[in-house]
Amino acid sequence: xxxxxxxxxxxxxxxxxxxxxxxxxxxxxxxxxxxxxxxxxxxxxxxxxxxxxxxxxxxxxxxxxxxxxxxxxxxxxxxxxxxxxxxxxxxxxxxxxxxxxxxxxxxxxxxxxxxxxxxxxxxxxxxxxxxxxxxxxxxxxxxxxxxxxxxxxxxxxxxxxxxxxxxxxxxxxxxxxxxxxxxxxxxxxxxxxxxxxxxxxxxxxxxxxxxxxxxxxxxxxxxxxxxxxxxxxxxxxxxxxxxxxxxxxxxxxxxxxxxxxxxxxxxxxxxxxxxxxxxxxxxxxxxxxxxxxxxxxxxxxxxxxxxxxxxxxxxxxxxxxxxxxxxxxxxxxxxxxxxxxxx
Length: 343
Prior knowledge:
It contains 13 helices and 19 strands. It has 343 residues and is of the alpha+beta class.
């Protein structure tokens, strides 16, 4: 459905419900929420223990009566009640009460490309539960393209690769619409699981998830913490005791390269479905990387070698989608034919 710029400019709130982080932009106030999409809840009383960053630190460290919940998966709300409680805690009860008193509060929210009706309804119910009176659904790929500064409204092709925590979306944009797109279940969490499995199989070491993120960051800097590699601490598979192992950054890069093969195949599939004129545009424009996992070490170079096109990383890849929504509701861009839905 076509949404006019006036409909979007009447929105007050822009929301990006990501599997990794939730971001909320208020018109006139900027980005007010940028927290991990995670909740710690007491299963005996039902009370919230922590939300966002404090809850993320509890992951893997809680007793049996405290459960760490991720109410959003692959950009889709899978637990509406818990997602509403998470948003109320992040925004603040006072702000939520003021939203409920506003009979004209409109919200724009990102949804994955070709999200099914159930996923769309889940996003709507989540936001109406915290005070929104009308919800506009905007394709995440369009919003991210705008947030990256791509001229998505021009009659020329732009290729965006949106790397999320659990999945990566690839699309060619032109005239404010999506010409061809694909989605692969490869993201930052997939890479982390591949590293964990490799260390278990080859070093007999069980690594906590938070240590994997630190290892990824060290690999991104070339393993500068030690001339011989990166030291990681984990649990020995056989004895169950703590143990540390020195890991060569090149070894980690090789492990990370395997899951990225499906991402390269998805880009080739999208280009194969595009008209030749648009593909010719991309030879000069290249690929734009966005999303929280766009900074994976070696990802840009791998795509550059596979596609023979220039690859750029967005200036602020993690917030590209919410920045694009913010630009829409503040009237800084005027899309010709925006792929979105008003509900």
